[in-house]
Specification:
alpha+beta; Elongation Factor Tu (Ef-tu), domain 3; five-stranded antiparallel beta sheet
């Protein structure tokens, strides 16, 4: 092999090696990466279409209710005690029973007063006869006018003394001032009672008073005759009461107004219980409202997303009253609008959406 041929082969081999090195550094298509890119692209396209639920705006009745806590009070309640002092000689009631107004419940010793009354009554006939005789004599000018007036005064004084003793006897009797349920007695026969001695408690439980307080914001809205509902712990029943009186001024410490309502209490609910009240402040007819979950707060404003031509379009609304489930839309939506109520945090202006359910 001559020298020229040798160097030619070396040059060809060198050029081949250099070309192979350059080819190895060129970018090549990776089939696995290409497949992954296709999956990612299809996933991104699927994420751009959001499945949501929606509702159609229509007029309805909205009520603004105020939740409150109140206390059930008896219509009347009093600690029973005697008006005078003495030894209790008679107790005529059973604990925990109903008593009628005027019923004799207990009595202290009145024997001295009864004897005094009997003495005075025995003198009454004689005094009346004196007046009769003096009147007859006066008509015949047989006695002076002064003598006649004196016997008349004596009769009047006697009658006054009789009335005084009878009043004192009444003070020895303890009678029910109103119909009600009498509680546990605190004394026994033989106890020396004074006006400060409590014999028992008498409670009138029908009707019941429902007492509650409202803030000054709502004070002017609650009028006499307003209706409210209340529930009691451990019961699913709802009860109706009617406002009958308001305090004359706000409490200076709490700035609340105390209000009372009446409940007829046909079932005999015990007073003293707490009640969960719902007071209706206003009722709006033909109001447009959207579900609370549809509201998206943004920069101090409220907006909702409407479904229009397959896309989400945000609109700002002016909110009115709020209930547990709904918000009144004073401005921003119209009757028949389709409001999106799910996925609101993912929505963007113009995003394609698909509605799964319309409520």
């Amino acid at each position: 092999m001559n020298r020229k041929v040798k160097w030619g082969l070396i040059a060809v081999i060198g050029i081949g090696l250099v070309g192979a090195g350059i080819y190895s550094q060129l970018p090549k298509e990776n089939e696995e990466l290409a497949a992954a890119d296709q999956v990612a692209d299809s996933g991104e396209r699927s994420k751009r279409i959001l499945n949501v639920n929606a509702t159609i705006v229509k007029p309805q009745v909205l009520t603004e209710d105020i939740p409150l806590v109140g206390t059930l009070l008896p219509d009347e309640e009093v600690d029973l005690s005697f008006e005078t002092s003495g030894k209790i000689v008679e107790i005529n009631f059973e604990e925990g029973t109903h008593v009628k107004r005027g019923q004799l419940l207990a009595r202290v010793n009145d024997r001295p007063l009864q004897a005094q009354l009997q003495r005075l009554v025995s003198q009454l006939k004689l005094a009346e006869d004196r007046v009769f005789r003096q009147d007859a004599l006066l008509k015949r000018d047989a006695v002076s006018k002064e003598a006649y007036e004196q016997v008349k005064t004596e009769l009047a004084t006697l009658n006054a003394d009789i009335e005084l003793v009878r009043a004192q006897i009444e003070q020895t009797e303890l009678r029910a001032p109103f119909d009600g349920v009498i509680g546990l007695r605190q004394v026994s026969v033989g106890t020396y009672a004074s006006p400060s001695t409590v014999v028992a408690k008498l409670t009138k439980i029908s009707p019941l008073k429902v007492e509650f307080a409202v803030s000054e914001r709502y004070a002017a809205d609650i009028k006499q005759g307003a209706m409210l509902t209340f529930t009691l712990e451990g019961s699913l029943n709802q009860y109706q009461a009617q406002v009958y009186a308001r305090e004359s001024s706000l409490d200076l410490n709490t700035h609340t107004l105390t209000i009372r309502a009446l409940y007829p209490n046909p079932t005999g609910i015990m007073p003293g219980r707490y009640a969960s009240l719902t007071l209706r402040r206003h009722e709006y007819q033909n109001a447009l409202a959207v579900p609370s979950e549809a509201i998206v707060p943004e920069m101090g404003k409220d907006k909702v997303f409407l479904y229009k031509n397959g896309k989400a379009e945000p609109v700002e609304i002016v909110a009115g009253i709020r209930t547990e489930a709904l918000v009144q839309a004073v401005k921003g939506v119209s009757e028949g609008d389709t409001v999106i109520i799910s996925g609101t945090q993912q929505l963007r202006t113009g995003m394609p959406i698909t509605i799964d359910n319309i409520y």
